[in-house]
Amino acid sequence: MKTVTFTELRAHIYTLLDEVLESGVPLEVQRGHRRLRILPVEQPDKLQNLVYRPDVVRGDPEDLVSLS
After folding, report:
1. Rounded Cα distance, 29 and 5, in Å
2. Alpha carbons 5 and 11: distance in angstroms, whole number
3. pLDDT the model gives residue 60
4. CATH number of the structural domain spanning residue 16
5. What's the pLDDT score for residue 61?
6. Are 33 and 9 in contact (CB under 8 A)?
7. Tens-digit pLDDT profile for residues 23-46
8. Range(s) of the domain holding residue 14
9. Which of 8, 23, 47, 51 is most enclosed, with most CB atoms within 10 A?
């Protein structure tokens, strides 16, 4: 993680923000003994919300009609 001062951030803000977006690596900004962290926000993957259901039958519903 890269750390810069407020002065460096002010001088190169667009370049530094582009680097964060391209690399995904957060940027820390230090002012005195305090720090801020700039990081990209990822769009959530909707498929991550799916719940695994082992009892659900996968396949063609027409195949279920002919089961004996």
Report:
1. 5
2. 10
3. 80
4. 3.40.1620.10
5. 75
6. no
7. 989 999 999 999 999 999 987 788
8. 1-39
9. 8
